[in-house]
């Protein structure tokens, strides 16, 4: 294992992250909110660590194996979350609360331990949104777009960082160009979302902040009331639109925009399945609302359904008093999650689609043992090896969920809060049920630590993190 090469590349990635502190410094200067020193100190500390690491390993060979790529990814997200927590800690938060908030931001989970957001300095509010925006597409992908200019390859990192089907699919012949295309799409969606938010009545600050967390499917807001603070049907519609767009595969956006093939949207089986899930859950939620006499409006149910299924976590009203059946239904929708190759969380729609079709195939084989039935998604055949891999992922996912749930229950948290908080953090959703319906400040330190690990596990799609914990990974 080339330790010097790992430290060299790791230092470059840290330097990329340290540059992000410049933006909240500018925001602090504009609003004169008195918090500039928090980010200056963080910039100096993290920047020096990255610079010293880079200079001390300069000239090292940068040929990396897949094993080293896995190590870089996992360590980077852990250290990045610790580095991101420095401004929160300097502002007066505890160590675990600071790391929890930073991990939640950079993994686009949206779970927060902060209450009374409206009273926070603008620079800290903006910094929370920036963490989510950077984590949405992945700082690694951004770095890969620039690393070739420094003579550093990044293929192994790209394959371990980009989740779902995108991990083995390049949109362009070169990885650098693929990363640049992804970021152009990401930037374009953010710009358009911000413009429409501003047209809808948001201030420039709120429009930019919410555009970043919307397109990142993060769910952080600059107000305690979230999107409901603006009480605008137009803003809610824009939010719904861009949550859905960001939950779709960026491969589809690429073909629609760069290849001028918008009809790809109409024929993609995963997109059809994802939208079908949205419609089914929305219909069930409306029926449950009617049956329970909750008095919830169609507008409320629609917004929260899209927000939960896309794993964003925005809200327009207090859902803590909703009928439990509706809240639980929406949480289950978050388990399914967004499309592959998107910035959303969850198991991912394509995996669920493959599992359903594979189960149907096996049922048909039982009924007709001699028949030859192929597994198809749309018009494409899916190898049994792929289906086996998906079921393997799902089994590890369920086991991880149960272990995390037992740890939270052992810490003294009630079942409703424990189940929903693990589901919300593992699926990078954010808000849960029970004691964590508004924020996570009331739960104990052990629970916050476990849930922070769950966020990382979900962001790296479980295997990337668990693989380095196996003895076989470290054997020669």
Descriptive notes:
- The protein is an all-alpha fold.
- It is built from 23 helices and two strands.
- It has helices at residues 3-18, 22-31, 36-56, 66-84, 86-90, 95-106, 122-137, 139-146, 155-161, 175-199, 204-215, 233-247, 250-257, 264-267, 269-292, 298-309, 324-336, 349-367, 384-410, 415-426, 445-459, 463-466, 471-474; strands at 376-377, 380-381.
- The model is unreliable at 145-168 (pLDDT under 50).
- The chain crosses the membrane at residues 7-32, 38-57, 69-90, 130-158, 179-199, 229-252, 273-291, 324-347, 390-410, 450-474.
- K(+) binds at residues 108-109, 217-218, 311-312, 428-429.
- It is found in: Cell inner membrane.
What is the CA-CA span between the terminal residues?
9 Å
Q: Helicity range of the residues?
A: 55-70%
Q: Any idea what the radius of gyration is?
A: 22 Å
How are strands sequenced across the largest beta sheet? Answer: 1-2
Brief summary:
This protein has 23 helices and 2 strands. It is mainly α and 476 residues long.
Q: What key attributes describe this structure?
A:
single chain, 476 residues, mainly alpha, globular, cell membrane, Cat_transpt
Indicate the topology.
Layout: H1 3-18, H2 22-31, H3 36-56, H4 66-84, H5 86-90, H6 95-106, H7 122-137, H8 139-146, H9 155-161, H10 175-199, H11 204-215, H12 233-247, H13 250-257, H14 264-267, H15 269-292, H16 298-309, H17 324-336, H18 349-367, E1 376-377, E2 380-381, H19 384-410, H20 415-426, H21 445-459, H22 463-466, H23 471-474
Antiparallel strand pairs: 1-2
């Amino acid at each position: 294992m080339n330790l010097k090469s790992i430290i060299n590349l790791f230092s470059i990635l840290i330097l990329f992250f340290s540059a992000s502190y410049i933006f909240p410094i500018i925001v602090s200067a504009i609003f004169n909110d008195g918090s500039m020193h928090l980010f200056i100190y963080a910039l100096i500390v993290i920047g020096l660590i990255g610079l010293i690491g880079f200079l001390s390993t300069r000239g090292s060979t940068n040929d990396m194996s897949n094993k080293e790529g896995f190590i870089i990814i996992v360590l980077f997200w852990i250290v990045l979350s610790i580095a991101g927590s420095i401004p929160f800690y300097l502002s007066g938060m505890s160590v675990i609360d600071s790391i929890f908030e930073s991990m939640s931001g950079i993994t686009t989970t949206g779970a927060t331990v902060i209450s009374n957001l409206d009273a926070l300095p603008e620079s800290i509010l903006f910094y929370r949104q920036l963490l989510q925006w950077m984590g949405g597409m992945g700082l690694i992908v951004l770095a890969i777009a620039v690393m070739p200019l420094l003579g550093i390859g990044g293929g192994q990192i790209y394959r371990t960082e980009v989740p779902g089907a995108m991990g083995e699919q390049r949109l362009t012949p070169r990885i650098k160009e693929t990363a640049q295309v992804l970021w152009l799409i990401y930037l374009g969606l953010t710009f358009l979302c911000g413009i429409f938010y501003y047209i809808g009545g948001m201030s420039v600050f709120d429009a930019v902040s919410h555009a970043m967390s919307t397109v990142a499917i993060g769910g952080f807001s600059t107000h305690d009331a979230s999107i409901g603070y603006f009480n605008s049907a137009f803003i809610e519609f824009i939010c719904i639109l861009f949550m859905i767009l960001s939950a779709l595969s960026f491969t589809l956006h690429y073909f629609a925009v760069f290849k001028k093939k918008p009809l790809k949207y109409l024929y993609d089986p995963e997109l059809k399945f994802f939208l079908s899930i949205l419609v089914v859950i929305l219909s069930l939620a409306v029926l449950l609302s009617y049956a329970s006499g909750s008095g919830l409006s169609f507008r409320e149910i629609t917004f929260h359904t899209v927000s939960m299924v896309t794993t964003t976590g925005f809200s327009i009203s207090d859902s803590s008093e909703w009928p439990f059946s509706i809240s639980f239904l929406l949480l289950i929708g978050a388990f399914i999650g967004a499309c592959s190759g998107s910035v959303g969380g969850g198991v991912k729609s394509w995996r669920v689609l493959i599992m359903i079709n594979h189960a149907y195939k096996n049922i048909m084989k039982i009924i007709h043992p001699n028949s030859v039935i192929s597994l198809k998604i749309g018009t494409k055949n899916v190898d049994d090896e792929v289906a086996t891999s998906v079921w393997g992922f799902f089994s590890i996912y369920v086991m991880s969920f149960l272990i995390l749930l037992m740890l939270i229950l052992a810490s003294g948290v009630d079942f409703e809060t424990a189940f929903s908080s693990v589901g919300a953090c593992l699926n990078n959703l954010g808000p849960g049920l029970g004691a964590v319906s508004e924020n996570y400040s009331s739960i104990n330190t052990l629970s916050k630590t476990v849930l922070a690990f769950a966020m990382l596990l979900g962001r790296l799609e479980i295997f990337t993190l668990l693989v380095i914990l196996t003895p076989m990974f470290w054997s020669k």
